[in-house]
Specification:
The chain contains 34 helices and 26 strands. The strands form four sheets. The protein has an eight-stranded mixed sheet. An eight-stranded parallel barrel has the order 19-20-21-22-23-24-25-26, surrounded by five helices. The longest helix has 30 residues, at 317-346.
Amino acid sequence: MIGIVIVSHSKQLALGVRELAAQMVQDQVPMAVAAGIEDPENPLGTDPIQVYEAIASIFSDDGVLVLMDLGSALLSAEMAIEFLPEAQQQKVYLCEAPLVEGAIAAVVAVASGKDIHQVMAEARGALLAKATQLGVVSKPLSVVTSTTTNIESPTPEIRLIVSNRLGLHARPAAQFVATAARFQSQILVQNLTRNTELVRGDSINQVTTLGVRQGHELVITATGSDANEALAALQALFANNFGEAARSCCSNKEGLPNPEGEDNVALNSPPAFHHEITPATHGELLGIAASSGVAIAPVVHYQPTQIHITQHHVEDVEAEWQRVQAVIHIARQEIQAVFSQASIQIGDAEAAIFDAQLLFLEDPVLLEAVKERILEHHLNAEAAWQAVVDEVATSYHTLEDSYLQERVDDVVDVGQRVLRLLAGNAPAKVHLQEPAILVATDLTPSDTAGLDPTKVVGICTTSGSATSHSAIIARTLGIPAVLGVDAQVLHLADGTLMALDGESGKAWVEPESHILDLLAAKQSAWQTAQQEARATAHQPAITRDGRQVSVFANIGSISDVQVAVASGAQGVGLLRTEFLYLDRTNAPTEEEQLAVYQAIAQVLDNRPLIIRTLDVGGDKPLPYLKVGLREANPFLGWRGIRFCLDHLDLFKTQLRAILRASVGHQIKIMLPMIATVTEVRAAKVILGEVQAELNQAGISFDAAMKVGIMVEVPSAVAIADQLATEVDFFSIGTNDLSQYIMASDRTNPRVANLVDALHPAVLRMVQQTIQTAHAAGISVGLCGELAADTLATPILLGLGLDELSVNPQSIPRLKQAIARLSIVECEAIVASALQQDSAVHVRELISTSITPPA
């Protein structure tokens, strides 16, 4: 039976509502209360852990409806859902209905046998009877879920109810706009629930500021030659929940915070997270708990580049507009570079935060407004751009929804980037010699994504929130953060000792010895608990029926390998060497590379280390490596092995460093973006030449070092039998393979929703690769993002993969998932999955086929 959860700031109010509702149905409907906080002096508030426990206590596969009062109740409810297992998340619905009337209407609907969507509709309409009785309204709004045509106007339209849990937040809004922009027709959308005006569907800012949440009713119209096709595509987007059924509670692509970081959720440990602010003791600064952990270090101030804008009159308005367009092109390249680096540092899921930033630069409403100010008012580019960005930011600030208000950070981030480029200023950089706590007014998502967690051990800002994109990135990086502290911290001298506790939201300036002792003890206890929790992660990953699967790590730095080993990695399945080539003005030398490869191999202590040779191009440009003419389709262009075969000095330098590092270690070479047998043979000839040179110079190396390839191009799958005779192993890169199979650029928000590695077309290619490799007697691993999605684990095991390689933080969770499965049940799931017609149906199949452990 459907359960009802009542979330309120007042415990007495919530208990009263439950009692009244229960009497209406003679206690037939399961209900739970999550209200108030454990503070005798100030008991009003909400706690996400209470909400989580309430949902869990009455959870049913029929669904759970959560009713909330005001403010933080919504945020607490949204956070609570993140703590639930993924399969349960999709069955919990947040409803904005009035608390008293909504609860009564909901329980009556449940008792009468209605389904969850009907119950939600009854709850939302609960005020109608009262309003009608008082003469406020005469008839209810109509709810239409199919394509209709307005009788008075020939303009096609659709009306629908938004069902994805976070509504049109940044990521779904980006998909909506990208889809609308594919068509010639003019798309307009209105939020009927909030009675907004019609806005343009191709404007990311206008769509986002509609404030669309789950359960809101929208009307979408299209005018033009392809209007019906456009509406059908948009309706399909909503029907598929914008792909959010695929979201893992641990990958937190876009939404609410995972306060204790990815590791704790992976170990099924609900985090401790508190909203209430307790009175400060002497020497304490109170703030917002944004990313857990303890940091004790000197402070270093971060000051972004100050940009001073002067408005003036320009005569050559066309040249000024061209200047804006040129700078936007550069800004787009910079954001794509940030996306690429973030993908390496924090994974594709969190890096997707920057998708909406790319669409911001293409927003036609914004660009037209800037152009008008330049051409009509003769404003200089800087002043015109700043004025429009300020207007957009203001539109976000005026939203009632606090979560959507915080998306203004992305607007400011992109706006400042373009402004900096217009002004000709260099970007601000954080260069630390020793570990420090970064103190700032605020950090943008771009700032945060570029931080080195080994040097920035804590973040303390005077603004920000736990649900900001910067906070999400900080949690993913594992950097403790306390936000919103008193501005006095901005006046501290660099080098002043600070301590902060990201769980309690407190910071101390020059803390007294007893505070330091308490924090050090807490830090030690936390580390001990983590070590104990990870103890099983150091055991082999073995299925219930005895199949052992190797679990390796994808890494992009020396610090990553240390985390990987601590997390139970049995080796490194992918060392992305691009990090050696980033943030510098020339390529790394042989000696520089040798030192890094040896250091990583040393930490691995004879565990396997697969080093992928340089993979640049596409979404990973390097400014000092000249690529000649700008490519219209860089993902189909000069990248990966193609680039290296044309830069033999660069390629040989890397091969020499890898070979020299191989002595005494279990190192393997992996070639990226292989599309033909000729490429493999050419690379092996060059490898042979380097080996001959090292022999002649008397330099030792592992002559038996294995060579493998990335299978990420459809042609490689088609000729896998020929490639298998040339190499020692395959590693499937599902990120690229998916986008090539689906002909969709995964970094392009307009089509990125098509790229899903669980699509049967992709799975069939993976199956073909594995079967061909095993027939040839070579092993096959998978190092794409798919391996970290535990929902996909039954599929990957059933397909017969020998090893899975994931980001270090996902290793404990993946090993747990493997231990709960049997190969027999996984093979049965695969047999059915390959016959499905969409990734959505594959995910539904998995969710219904796996029995959760008791």
